[in-house]
Amino acid sequence: MSESLPALAAVLRAAPGSDALVILGRLLDSLPIPFLVTDCSLELRFVYGNPAWRAGMAQEQVPTAGQALEEILESLSLVPILRHACASGAAAHLRNLEHVTLAGTPVSLPGDVTVWDWEVYPLTDASDGQGHLLIVGMDATGRTIHGPGLSREARRRAAKAGVRIDFRQGDVTHLEGLGLEPGYSLIFDFGCYHGLNGRQRDAYARGVKTVAAEGATVLLMGFGKASPPVTTPVTESDLTSRFGAGWTLAWSHPDTSEGTWAMKHAAAGWFCLVRRD
């Protein structure tokens, strides 16, 4: 434990209405990582959820103080795990839990599925019992798609579909490091480019040029409005300037599919570039 935490706790106990508590509350509210606090009653009643956590829920689903967690959680299998953490005082570390149709998630698997890791920490009260739970979430969808977890999940889906795929893990801004042979006729991007900053987008475009065949098509979905963690919208001028001479924007249009909540919220669009040199 950080040596500063007991000192901070002492300040807050001595002066619960102090500026320190207000500042700490603001810091917690500003964290981009979703977390919530429940009590350790049998019902695991909701106490607090920071804005990042509330942003993952439709407005009508945001819980009220005192509401039982069973009425909030999509996966009721979590409830026994949380109750055990309260009873035992032992932290729980949960990985690769799938959720469906969470709002605001920039990347999802087919069917609006997102993958999350959850850390559960019992919080002791004044009598050294477990009075509350702190539950912290980390969106692991990107890891499932691109990281070490790719092999299990993606290969399972490929096998189910009856197709053979050569999976490569790497950095999209360093495609030259993946050992890919030039000559690809289709490059499909569903929500990757729009998460890059300007320097990374330039590197992305250079990498695509090295692997794309003459006449190749780049089909790309990108957000038309900033929606964290996407800070810079994708536009026609952005793409044509970065891909440069030799590439033509064949068409673009707003996404009209059912899509995810994030796609609708951030005005997702489709862009088609064709190599002409």
Structure notes:
The protein is built from nine helices and nine strands. It is of the alpha+beta class and 277 residues long. The chain folds into two domains: 31-143, PAS domain (Beta-Lactamase, 2-Layer Sandwich), CATH 3.30.450.20; 170-275, Rossmann fold. The strands form two sheets. It has a five-stranded antiparallel beta sheet. Helix 7 links the parallel strand 6 (184-190) and strand 7 (212-223). The longest helix is centred in the C-terminal third of the chain and has 14 residues, at 198-211. It starts with a helix and ends with a strand.
Keywords for this entry:
277 residues, alpha+beta, Beta-Lactamase, 5-stranded antiparallel β-sheet, 9 helices, 9 strands
What is the name of the CATH superfamily of the largest domain? PAS domain
Tally the helices: what do you get? Answer: 9
Number of strands: 9
CATH architecture of the largest domain: 2-Layer Sandwich
Largest sheet: 5 strands, antiparallel
N-end to C-end Cα span: 60 Å
CATH class of the largest domain: Alpha Beta
Structural class: alpha+beta
Q: Which sequence of SSEs, written as H and E, runs from N to C? A: HHEEHHEEEHHEHEHEHE
Unreliable residue runs: none
Radius of gyration: 23 Å
Instruction: Give the DSSP E fraction (strand runs of 2 or more residues).
Output: 25-35%
Helix content: 25-40%
Tertiary shape: elongated
